[in-house]
Write a structure and sequence with these properties.
By secondary structure, the protein is an alpha+beta fold. The chain has helices spanning 2-27, 34-70, 192-207, 224-251, and strands at 75-82, 85-95, 101-109, 113-114, 120-121, 128-131, 136-143, 154-162, 172-177. Among the domains are: 2-70; 75-181, Immunoglobulin-like.
C-alpha cells in the first residue's frame, strides 16, 4: 500500500511540475487582450481540475484497498497462559480479522515438543477448514517445568490461509519464545475453571457417602442449651471465688 501511495504522490507532483512549466511558457506569451487573459485563466482552471481529479481518483483507490484490507482475515499463532493457571501455557491459533479464514495451515520450526507428562512432539492439525472472526484453535503446550528440560525456547511459526473468495493471502509469521516466560512473576486468579474443579471434588466426596461400612458421614452433635448452662455456672463460681478472696483480704489486720 505504501508503494501505491508513493505512486500517486509522484503522479501528483509530476502533474504539478508540468502545470508550472506550461504556465511559465504561457506566461511568456504576449497577453495584451482580455481574450488572452481569459484563455489563460481557463487553462489554469482546467489544469487544477485535472490534478485534483487525479488525486481524488488515487484517494478513492487507496480507500477501497484499505476497506478490503480491513475486511480480510488475520490469523496469528501465539502462546498464552491457560485458563487453568498461569503455570500452564497453551498454543493458540486465532483469527483476529473481520471475515472468515479458510484452509488454515500451520508450520512451526523447530517442531514443538512437550516436556510435561509423557512428553513428545505436540500434535498439530494438518488443516483447519475455517476460523470465523474471533474463533480459535487451542491446545495445551507445556508448563513452567519446561525451562529446565533442554528443549528449544524459540520457534518460528507461519500461518497460511485463504479469504472467503478462496484467494491465498500473504502468510503471517510470528515468533514463539519461551524465553520471555522465564523468571516472570505471576498471580493466580481463580475463575470458573477452579469453581468447576471444586464442585467436582465436592461431588466426588458426596458420592462416597453411604449408610453402611466406612462410607457414612460422621456427625457431631451437642446440646447447646446444656453447654450454655454449664458455662454460666462455671463463670458464677469463678466470680464467687474472686469475691471471697477480696473479702478475706479486706478483713486481715494491717
Amino acid at each position: 500500500m505504501r508503494n501505491r501511495v508513493n505512486r500517486w504522490t509522484y503522479v501528483g507532483a509530476g502533474a504539478t511540475a508540468a502545470m508550472l512549466v506550461s504556465a511559465g511558457a504561457v506566461w511568456s506569451w504576449p497577453l495584451s487582450t482580455a481574450e488572452q487573459w481569459s484563455a489563460l485563466a481557463a487553462w489554469v482552471t482546467a489544469s487544477v481540475a485535472v490534478i485534483a481529479g487525479g488525486v481524488a481518483v488515487g484517494q478513492l483507490g487507496e480507500a477501497r484497498r484499505l476497506r478490503l484490507g480491513q475486511a480480510q482475515p488475520y490469523v496469528v499463532v501465539f502462546m498464552e497462559p491457560s485458563a487453568a493457571g498461569s503455570y500452564y501455557v497453551d498454543l493458540v491459533v486465532r483469527n483476529f480479522g473481520a471475515t472468515a479464514a479458510h484452509d488454515v495451515r500451520l508450520e512451526i520450526e523447530p517442531a514443538p515438543h512437550r516436556h510435561t507428562g509423557t512428553g513428545g512432539e505436540l500434535w498439530l492439525p494438518e488443516l483447519i477448514p475455517v476460523l470465523v472472526p474471533g474463533q480459535e484453535w487451542r491446545t495445551f503446550w507445556d508448563t513452567g517445568q519446561r525451562v529446565e528440560s533442554g528443549l528449544p525456547d524459540r520457534h518460528d511459526a507461519v500461518a497460511t490461509f485463504n479469504d472467503s473468495d478462496g484467494r491465498a493471502l500473504p502468510p503471517l509469521r510470528s515468533i514463539l519464545d519461551w524465553g520471555v516466560l522465564k523468571n516472570r512473576a505471576t498471580i493466580d486468579i481463580y475463575g470458573i475453571h477452579h469453581a468447576a474443579k471444586a464442585l467436582r471434588q465436592i461431588d466426588k466426596t458426596l458420592s462416597r457417602w453411604g449408610e453402611r461400612g466406612s462410607g457414612g458421614l460422621a456427625v457431631v452433635t451437642r446440646d447447646g442449651d446444656a453447654k450454655n448452662r454449664r458455662e454460666r455456672e462455671h463463670l458464677r463460681r469463678r466470680r464467687a471465688e474472686q469475691d471471697k478472696q477480696q473479702a478475706d483480704g479486706a478483713e486481715e489486720p494491717g
